[in-house]
Amino acid sequence: MDAVAEDPPSKTADGITEGSHQGFEVGQRVQSIDKGPNKIGTIKYIGPVEGYQGIWAGVDWDDGDGRHNGTVNGVLYFDADGEKSASFVRLHSLSKGVTFLEALFRRYRGNTTKEEQDEMYVLSASQKRVAIEHVGVNKMQEKLMHLENLFHVSLEYAGVSEPGPVHEIHGILPKLEELDLRGNLLPDWQAVGLICEELPALQFLDLSYSRIRISSDSLPIFYNLRTLVLNNCGITWKQVERLKKSLPVLEELHLVGNRLRTIEDVRLSDNPISNPTKGGALRYILIARLSKITMLNGSEVKQRERKDSEIRYVRFVMTTMQGKSQEEIARKHPRFAELKSQHDIPDESWPVGVTGPQKMAAGLLSITLTCVGASAGEKAPITKKLPATTTVGKLKLLCQGFFKLTPMKQRLFLQEQDSPIPTPLNDDMETLGDLGIGASVGNILVDEVENC
Length: 452
Prior knowledge:
five-stranded antiparallel beta sheet, five-stranded parallel beta sheet, alpha/beta
Protein backbone atom coordinates (compact mmCIF):
# COMPACT_ATOMS: atom_id res chain seq x y z
CA MET A 1 0.00 0.00 0.00
CA ASP A 2 1.29 3.44 -0.92
CA ALA A 3 0.80 6.47 1.27
CA VAL A 4 0.61 10.13 0.31
CA ALA A 5 2.15 11.61 3.41
CA GLU A 6 4.90 9.14 4.25
CA ASP A 7 6.70 6.00 3.12
CA PRO A 8 4.69 2.74 3.15
CA PRO A 9 4.56 1.20 6.64
CA SER A 10 6.26 -2.06 7.46
CA LYS A 11 4.04 -5.12 7.68
CA THR A 12 3.53 -6.75 11.05
CA ALA A 13 3.59 -10.47 11.84
CA ASP A 14 1.67 -10.04 15.09
CA GLY A 15 -1.51 -8.54 13.61
CA ILE A 16 -2.78 -4.98 13.71
CA THR A 17 -2.32 -2.61 16.61
CA GLU A 18 -5.10 -0.07 17.02
CA GLY A 19 -4.33 3.51 18.03
CA SER A 20 -6.14 6.72 19.00
CA HIS A 21 -8.26 8.58 16.47
CA GLN A 22 -6.73 11.81 17.78
CA GLY A 23 -9.92 13.83 17.36
CA PHE A 24 -10.45 12.92 13.70
CA GLU A 25 -13.68 11.40 12.42
CA VAL A 26 -15.14 10.05 9.20
CA GLY A 27 -16.56 12.82 6.99
CA GLN A 28 -14.13 15.42 8.32
CA ARG A 29 -12.40 17.78 5.91
CA VAL A 30 -8.61 17.85 6.27
CA GLN A 31 -5.41 19.28 4.82
CA SER A 32 -2.21 17.37 4.20
CA ILE A 33 0.59 18.70 6.40
CA ASP A 34 3.32 17.20 4.23
CA LYS A 35 1.85 18.10 0.84
CA GLY A 36 0.85 21.66 1.74
CA PRO A 37 -2.41 23.60 2.29
CA ASN A 38 -3.65 23.07 -1.27
CA LYS A 39 -3.85 19.30 -0.69
CA ILE A 40 -7.38 18.96 0.70
CA GLY A 41 -9.60 15.92 1.12
CA THR A 42 -12.32 14.17 3.08
CA ILE A 43 -11.69 11.38 5.58
CA LYS A 44 -13.77 8.36 4.55
CA TYR A 45 -12.24 5.71 6.78
CA ILE A 46 -10.34 5.53 10.07
CA GLY A 47 -9.02 2.24 11.35
CA PRO A 48 -6.66 -0.64 10.73
CA VAL A 49 -5.54 -1.78 7.30
CA GLU A 50 -4.90 -5.46 6.82
CA GLY A 51 -1.17 -6.27 6.83
CA TYR A 52 -0.02 -2.89 8.19
CA GLN A 53 0.54 -1.59 11.69
CA GLY A 54 -1.51 1.02 13.48
CA ILE A 55 -4.46 3.17 12.61
CA TRP A 56 -4.80 4.75 9.18
CA ALA A 57 -6.98 7.43 7.67
CA GLY A 58 -8.46 6.77 4.25
CA VAL A 59 -8.65 10.18 2.52
CA ASP A 60 -10.43 10.97 -0.74
CA TRP A 61 -8.48 13.92 -2.19
CA ASP A 62 -10.28 16.78 -3.95
CA ASP A 63 -7.67 17.04 -6.70
CA GLY A 64 -8.10 13.36 -7.58
CA ASP A 65 -4.38 12.70 -7.09
CA GLY A 66 -4.18 9.59 -4.91
CA ARG A 67 -3.19 5.95 -5.15
CA HIS A 68 -6.38 3.89 -5.30
CA ASN A 69 -10.19 3.97 -5.08
CA GLY A 70 -10.51 2.86 -1.46
CA THR A 71 -9.64 -0.78 -2.15
CA VAL A 72 -6.25 -2.14 -1.07
CA ASN A 73 -5.08 -5.71 -1.66
CA GLY A 74 -8.59 -6.74 -2.61
CA VAL A 75 -10.21 -5.32 0.54
CA LEU A 76 -12.78 -2.50 0.12
CA TYR A 77 -12.43 0.03 2.94
CA PHE A 78 -14.47 2.87 1.41
CA ASP A 79 -15.73 4.18 -1.94
CA ALA A 80 -13.68 7.02 -3.41
CA ASP A 81 -14.91 9.44 -6.04
CA GLY A 82 -12.23 8.44 -8.53
CA GLU A 83 -10.27 5.37 -9.51
CA LYS A 84 -7.10 6.84 -8.04
CA SER A 85 -8.32 9.74 -5.92
CA ALA A 86 -7.71 8.15 -2.48
CA SER A 87 -4.85 7.03 -0.29
CA PHE A 88 -4.13 5.95 3.27
CA VAL A 89 -2.11 8.27 5.49
CA ARG A 90 -1.20 8.51 9.16
CA LEU A 91 -3.39 10.80 11.23
CA HIS A 92 -0.43 12.88 12.38
CA SER A 93 0.17 13.91 8.76
CA LEU A 94 -3.24 15.59 8.57
CA SER A 95 -4.44 18.98 9.79
CA LYS A 96 -7.93 19.48 11.21
CA GLY A 97 -7.77 23.19 10.44
CA VAL A 98 -8.30 26.30 12.53
CA THR A 99 -11.10 28.71 13.40
CA PHE A 100 -11.99 31.65 11.18
CA LEU A 101 -10.38 34.20 13.50
CA GLU A 102 -7.24 32.10 13.97
CA ALA A 103 -6.78 32.01 10.21
CA LEU A 104 -7.48 35.74 9.99
CA PHE A 105 -4.87 36.63 12.63
CA ARG A 106 -2.28 34.30 11.10
CA ARG A 107 -2.77 35.80 7.65
CA TYR A 108 -3.01 39.46 8.60
CA ARG A 109 -1.18 39.80 11.91
CA GLY A 110 1.43 37.09 11.69
CA ASN A 111 5.05 38.23 11.60
CA THR A 112 7.55 36.93 9.08
CA THR A 113 9.63 34.13 10.58
CA LYS A 114 13.44 34.19 10.63
CA GLU A 115 13.45 31.25 8.21
CA GLU A 116 11.26 33.18 5.75
CA GLN A 117 13.46 36.26 6.08
CA ASP A 118 16.59 34.18 5.44
CA GLU A 119 15.07 32.96 2.18
CA MET A 120 14.51 36.52 0.89
CA TYR A 121 17.86 37.47 -0.65
CA VAL A 122 19.66 38.16 -3.92
CA LEU A 123 23.21 37.28 -4.97
CA SER A 124 25.73 40.08 -5.41
CA ALA A 125 28.37 40.20 -8.12
CA SER A 126 30.70 38.34 -5.75
CA GLN A 127 28.01 35.68 -5.18
CA LYS A 128 27.28 36.84 -1.62
CA ARG A 129 23.78 36.86 -0.19
CA VAL A 130 22.28 40.34 0.18
CA ALA A 131 19.07 40.59 2.21
CA ILE A 132 16.07 42.12 0.44
CA GLU A 133 14.73 45.27 2.06
CA HIS A 134 10.95 45.56 1.67
CA VAL A 135 10.19 49.26 1.50
CA GLY A 136 6.97 50.08 3.34
CA VAL A 137 6.59 46.68 4.98
CA ASN A 138 6.28 48.14 8.47
CA LYS A 139 3.71 50.65 7.30
CA MET A 140 1.70 47.91 5.57
CA GLN A 141 1.85 45.65 8.63
CA GLU A 142 0.71 48.51 10.82
CA LYS A 143 -2.25 49.07 8.49
CA LEU A 144 -3.20 45.39 8.58
CA MET A 145 -3.16 45.48 12.37
CA HIS A 146 -6.32 47.60 12.14
CA LEU A 147 -8.61 44.87 10.81
CA GLU A 148 -11.70 46.92 11.54
CA ASN A 149 -10.88 49.08 8.50
CA LEU A 150 -10.65 46.20 6.02
CA PHE A 151 -13.20 45.94 3.22
CA HIS A 152 -11.67 42.83 1.60
CA VAL A 153 -10.21 39.73 3.29
CA SER A 154 -8.58 36.82 1.48
CA LEU A 155 -8.19 33.55 3.41
CA GLU A 156 -7.81 31.14 0.52
CA TYR A 157 -6.43 27.73 1.58
CA ALA A 158 -6.05 28.99 5.14
CA GLY A 159 -7.43 25.83 6.75
CA VAL A 160 -10.63 27.42 8.09
CA SER A 161 -12.66 24.51 9.47
CA GLU A 162 -15.04 26.17 11.94
CA PRO A 163 -16.41 29.61 12.80
CA GLY A 164 -14.94 29.72 16.31
CA PRO A 165 -16.16 32.46 18.71
CA VAL A 166 -18.59 34.09 16.28
CA HIS A 167 -19.59 36.87 18.68
CA GLU A 168 -16.12 38.41 18.18
CA ILE A 169 -16.18 38.48 14.36
CA HIS A 170 -18.42 41.53 13.90
CA GLY A 171 -16.32 43.71 16.21
CA ILE A 172 -13.13 42.76 14.36
CA LEU A 173 -14.45 43.08 10.76
CA PRO A 174 -17.41 45.51 10.91
CA LYS A 175 -16.84 46.93 7.39
CA LEU A 176 -16.00 43.74 5.50
CA GLU A 177 -17.69 43.62 2.08
CA GLU A 178 -15.70 40.89 0.26
CA LEU A 179 -14.55 37.56 1.71
CA ASP A 180 -12.43 35.00 -0.14
CA LEU A 181 -12.66 31.54 1.49
CA ARG A 182 -11.51 29.41 -1.42
CA GLY A 183 -10.14 25.98 -0.60
CA ASN A 184 -11.05 25.82 3.08
CA LEU A 185 -12.44 23.07 5.33
CA LEU A 186 -15.83 24.39 6.45
CA PRO A 187 -18.13 21.34 6.63
CA ASP A 188 -21.58 22.73 5.82
CA TRP A 189 -23.72 25.75 4.97
CA GLN A 190 -24.63 26.29 8.61
CA ALA A 191 -20.97 26.89 9.47
CA VAL A 192 -20.69 29.38 6.61
CA GLY A 193 -23.82 31.09 7.88
CA LEU A 194 -22.46 31.50 11.40
CA ILE A 195 -19.53 33.47 9.99
CA CYS A 196 -21.49 35.55 7.49
CA GLU A 197 -24.25 36.46 9.94
CA GLU A 198 -21.60 38.43 11.83
CA LEU A 199 -20.62 40.33 8.67
CA PRO A 200 -23.65 42.52 7.89
CA ALA A 201 -21.85 44.50 5.16
CA LEU A 202 -20.76 41.35 3.26
CA GLN A 203 -21.74 41.46 -0.43
CA PHE A 204 -19.23 39.09 -2.09
CA LEU A 205 -18.36 35.55 -0.95
CA ASP A 206 -16.07 33.07 -2.71
CA LEU A 207 -16.25 29.44 -1.51
CA SER A 208 -14.67 27.80 -4.55
CA TYR A 209 -12.75 24.54 -4.16
CA SER A 210 -14.70 23.62 -1.03
CA ARG A 211 -16.94 20.64 -0.29
CA ILE A 212 -19.71 22.23 1.74
CA ARG A 213 -22.75 20.15 2.60
CA ILE A 214 -26.03 21.86 1.72
CA SER A 215 -28.72 19.87 3.52
CA SER A 216 -32.47 20.28 3.22
CA ASP A 217 -32.66 21.55 6.80
CA SER A 218 -33.39 25.21 7.55
CA LEU A 219 -30.53 27.27 6.15
CA PRO A 220 -29.25 30.66 7.29
CA ILE A 221 -30.29 33.69 5.24
CA PHE A 222 -27.73 36.04 3.67
CA TYR A 223 -29.64 39.32 3.49
CA ASN A 224 -27.01 41.46 1.75
CA LEU A 225 -25.02 38.94 -0.31
CA ARG A 226 -24.96 40.00 -3.98
CA THR A 227 -22.34 37.65 -5.45
CA LEU A 228 -21.70 34.02 -4.49
CA VAL A 229 -18.92 31.99 -6.12
CA LEU A 230 -19.20 28.20 -5.82
CA ASN A 231 -16.81 27.08 -8.55
CA ASN A 232 -15.48 23.52 -8.35
CA CYS A 233 -17.46 22.64 -5.22
CA GLY A 234 -18.96 19.39 -6.51
CA ILE A 235 -22.52 20.61 -5.98
CA THR A 236 -25.68 19.51 -7.83
CA TRP A 237 -28.76 21.32 -9.10
CA LYS A 238 -30.74 20.01 -6.13
CA GLN A 239 -28.30 21.69 -3.76
CA VAL A 240 -28.44 24.92 -5.75
CA GLU A 241 -32.24 24.80 -5.49
CA ARG A 242 -31.98 24.51 -1.70
CA LEU A 243 -30.00 27.74 -1.56
CA LYS A 244 -32.59 29.98 -3.21
CA LYS A 245 -34.32 30.99 0.05
CA SER A 246 -30.96 31.76 1.66
CA LEU A 247 -30.06 34.33 -1.00
CA PRO A 248 -32.95 36.81 -1.36
CA VAL A 249 -30.94 39.61 -3.06
CA LEU A 250 -28.36 37.55 -4.97
CA GLU A 251 -27.39 38.99 -8.37
CA GLU A 252 -24.53 36.72 -9.45
CA LEU A 253 -24.04 32.98 -8.88
CA HIS A 254 -20.89 31.35 -10.27
CA LEU A 255 -21.04 27.56 -10.75
CA VAL A 256 -18.06 26.65 -12.92
CA GLY A 257 -16.73 23.09 -12.74
CA ASN A 258 -19.53 21.42 -10.75
CA ARG A 259 -21.69 18.30 -11.12
CA LEU A 260 -24.46 20.09 -12.96
CA ARG A 261 -26.13 17.90 -15.52
CA THR A 262 -29.07 18.48 -17.87
CA ILE A 263 -31.35 21.43 -17.18
CA GLU A 264 -34.97 20.59 -17.94
CA ASP A 265 -37.01 23.19 -16.03
CA VAL A 266 -35.90 26.84 -16.10
CA ARG A 267 -37.86 29.68 -14.47
CA LEU A 268 -36.60 33.16 -15.27
CA SER A 269 -39.71 35.29 -14.78
CA ASP A 270 -39.09 38.84 -13.55
CA ASN A 271 -35.40 38.54 -14.44
CA PRO A 272 -33.64 40.84 -16.95
CA ILE A 273 -32.32 37.81 -18.87
CA SER A 274 -35.86 36.94 -20.02
CA ASN A 275 -37.06 40.54 -20.43
CA PRO A 276 -36.23 41.91 -23.92
CA THR A 277 -36.98 45.48 -22.79
CA LYS A 278 -34.06 45.18 -20.34
CA GLY A 279 -31.60 43.64 -22.76
CA GLY A 280 -32.75 40.05 -22.19
CA ALA A 281 -33.48 37.30 -24.71
CA LEU A 282 -36.79 36.42 -26.30
CA ARG A 283 -38.41 33.10 -25.39
CA TYR A 284 -37.53 31.45 -28.70
CA ILE A 285 -33.84 32.33 -28.26
CA LEU A 286 -33.76 30.83 -24.75
CA ILE A 287 -35.43 27.64 -26.01
CA ALA A 288 -33.01 27.30 -28.90
CA ARG A 289 -29.91 27.89 -26.79
CA LEU A 290 -31.01 25.58 -23.94
CA SER A 291 -31.23 22.30 -25.82
CA LYS A 292 -32.58 20.10 -23.04
CA ILE A 293 -35.19 22.21 -21.29
CA THR A 294 -38.77 20.93 -21.33
CA MET A 295 -40.25 23.74 -19.20
CA LEU A 296 -39.58 27.48 -19.43
CA ASN A 297 -41.12 29.85 -16.89
CA GLY A 298 -43.71 27.22 -15.99
CA SER A 299 -44.81 26.69 -19.61
CA GLU A 300 -44.15 23.39 -21.36
CA VAL A 301 -41.82 23.49 -24.35
CA LYS A 302 -43.46 21.16 -26.85
CA GLN A 303 -41.71 19.60 -29.82
CA ARG A 304 -43.43 21.93 -32.27
CA GLU A 305 -42.37 25.04 -30.34
CA ARG A 306 -38.80 23.77 -30.02
CA LYS A 307 -38.53 23.23 -33.77
CA ASP A 308 -40.01 26.64 -34.60
CA SER A 309 -37.79 28.33 -32.02
CA GLU A 310 -34.63 26.70 -33.32
CA ILE A 311 -35.43 27.65 -36.92
CA ARG A 312 -36.18 31.24 -35.90
CA TYR A 313 -32.97 31.34 -33.91
CA VAL A 314 -30.89 30.22 -36.90
CA ARG A 315 -32.51 32.90 -39.06
CA PHE A 316 -31.96 35.45 -36.33
CA VAL A 317 -28.24 34.65 -36.24
CA MET A 318 -27.97 34.69 -40.03
CA THR A 319 -29.66 38.10 -40.16
CA THR A 320 -27.78 39.78 -37.30
CA MET A 321 -24.36 38.23 -37.90
CA GLN A 322 -23.98 38.81 -41.64
CA GLY A 323 -20.40 39.62 -42.50
CA LYS A 324 -19.02 38.16 -39.27
CA SER A 325 -16.38 35.42 -39.25
CA GLN A 326 -17.32 31.81 -38.55
CA GLU A 327 -15.17 31.94 -35.41
CA GLU A 328 -17.06 34.92 -34.02
CA ILE A 329 -20.43 33.34 -34.84
CA ALA A 330 -19.40 30.07 -33.15
CA ARG A 331 -18.21 31.95 -30.08
CA LYS A 332 -21.39 33.99 -29.67
CA HIS A 333 -23.83 31.31 -30.86
CA PRO A 334 -22.39 27.84 -30.11
CA ARG A 335 -25.49 25.96 -31.32
CA PHE A 336 -25.87 27.83 -34.61
CA ALA A 337 -23.98 25.42 -36.89
CA GLU A 338 -25.59 22.39 -35.27
CA LEU A 339 -29.13 23.74 -35.62
CA LYS A 340 -28.58 25.05 -39.16
CA SER A 341 -27.51 21.58 -40.25
CA GLN A 342 -30.19 19.80 -38.21
CA HIS A 343 -33.03 21.79 -39.82
CA ASP A 344 -31.39 21.91 -43.27
CA ILE A 345 -31.61 25.70 -43.50
CA PRO A 346 -29.92 27.10 -46.63
CA ASP A 347 -27.59 30.08 -46.56
CA GLU A 348 -29.33 33.43 -46.92
CA SER A 349 -26.26 35.66 -47.15
CA TRP A 350 -25.35 38.48 -49.50
CA PRO A 351 -23.99 37.41 -52.88
CA VAL A 352 -20.21 37.39 -53.03
CA GLY A 353 -18.77 40.56 -54.53
CA VAL A 354 -21.96 42.62 -54.22
CA THR A 355 -21.38 46.09 -52.77
CA GLY A 356 -23.10 49.44 -52.34
CA PRO A 357 -26.84 49.73 -53.10
CA GLN A 358 -26.97 46.19 -54.48
CA LYS A 359 -25.57 44.84 -51.19
CA MET A 360 -28.12 46.85 -49.21
CA ALA A 361 -30.97 45.58 -51.38
CA ALA A 362 -29.76 41.98 -51.08
CA GLY A 363 -29.81 42.31 -47.29
CA LEU A 364 -33.45 43.44 -47.08
CA LEU A 365 -36.14 41.13 -45.72
CA SER A 366 -39.26 40.37 -47.73
CA ILE A 367 -42.26 41.03 -45.44
CA THR A 368 -45.85 40.26 -46.41
CA LEU A 369 -48.43 42.27 -44.44
CA THR A 370 -51.95 40.82 -44.28
CA CYS A 371 -54.69 42.88 -42.64
CA VAL A 372 -57.31 40.80 -40.82
CA GLY A 373 -58.93 43.68 -38.91
CA ALA A 374 -62.71 43.83 -39.30
CA SER A 375 -63.03 47.60 -39.84
CA ALA A 376 -60.32 47.68 -42.50
CA GLY A 377 -62.40 45.61 -44.87
CA GLU A 378 -60.97 43.22 -47.41
CA LYS A 379 -57.57 44.38 -48.56
CA ALA A 380 -55.00 42.49 -50.54
CA PRO A 381 -51.77 41.53 -48.77
CA ILE A 382 -48.85 43.89 -49.29
CA THR A 383 -45.25 42.69 -49.68
CA LYS A 384 -42.43 45.08 -48.86
CA LYS A 385 -38.65 44.90 -48.64
CA LEU A 386 -37.54 46.12 -45.20
CA PRO A 387 -34.20 46.17 -43.36
CA ALA A 388 -33.73 43.73 -40.48
CA THR A 389 -33.42 46.70 -38.09
CA THR A 390 -37.06 47.70 -38.65
CA THR A 391 -38.85 47.63 -35.29
CA VAL A 392 -42.39 46.46 -34.58
CA GLY A 393 -43.25 50.06 -33.71
CA LYS A 394 -41.98 51.25 -37.12
CA LEU A 395 -43.92 48.44 -38.78
CA LYS A 396 -47.12 49.70 -37.14
CA LEU A 397 -46.53 53.17 -38.59
CA LEU A 398 -46.16 51.63 -42.04
CA CYS A 399 -49.37 49.64 -41.55
CA GLN A 400 -51.16 52.85 -40.60
CA GLY A 401 -50.48 54.16 -44.09
CA PHE A 402 -51.36 50.88 -45.78
CA PHE A 403 -54.51 49.89 -43.87
CA LYS A 404 -55.67 53.16 -42.25
CA LEU A 405 -55.37 51.72 -38.70
CA THR A 406 -53.68 53.84 -36.04
CA PRO A 407 -50.82 52.12 -34.18
CA MET A 408 -52.90 52.14 -30.99
CA LYS A 409 -55.52 50.00 -32.72
CA GLN A 410 -53.08 47.50 -34.18
CA ARG A 411 -52.01 44.14 -32.89
CA LEU A 412 -49.39 42.37 -34.98
CA PHE A 413 -48.69 38.63 -35.22
CA LEU A 414 -45.92 36.65 -36.87
CA GLN A 415 -47.39 33.80 -38.93
CA GLU A 416 -44.76 31.09 -39.38
CA GLN A 417 -44.92 28.32 -41.92
CA ASP A 418 -46.49 25.09 -40.59
CA SER A 419 -47.24 26.76 -37.25
CA PRO A 420 -50.99 26.72 -36.43
CA ILE A 421 -50.79 29.53 -33.86
CA PRO A 422 -49.29 32.93 -34.82
CA THR A 423 -46.85 34.59 -32.42
CA PRO A 424 -48.00 37.95 -30.97
CA LEU A 425 -45.55 40.84 -31.40
CA ASN A 426 -46.07 42.75 -28.16
CA ASP A 427 -42.75 44.59 -27.91
CA ASP A 428 -42.55 47.68 -30.12
CA MET A 429 -38.74 47.71 -29.70
CA GLU A 430 -38.24 44.26 -31.26
CA THR A 431 -36.69 44.29 -34.70
CA LEU A 432 -37.39 41.99 -37.64
CA GLY A 433 -33.94 40.54 -37.02
CA ASP A 434 -34.85 39.84 -33.41
CA LEU A 435 -37.89 37.92 -34.60
CA GLY A 436 -35.72 35.54 -36.58
CA ILE A 437 -37.43 36.27 -39.88
CA GLY A 438 -35.41 34.83 -42.76
CA ALA A 439 -34.29 36.78 -45.81
CA SER A 440 -36.74 34.85 -48.02
CA VAL A 441 -40.16 35.78 -46.61
CA GLY A 442 -41.92 36.80 -43.38
CA ASN A 443 -45.68 36.92 -42.92
CA ILE A 444 -47.12 39.53 -40.53
CA LEU A 445 -50.83 39.53 -39.63
CA VAL A 446 -52.29 42.95 -38.78
CA ASP A 447 -55.29 42.65 -36.47
CA GLU A 448 -57.47 45.30 -34.86
CA VAL A 449 -57.75 45.77 -31.11
CA GLU A 450 -61.38 45.89 -30.02
CA ASN A 451 -62.75 48.76 -27.91
CA CYS A 452 -59.63 50.87 -28.23
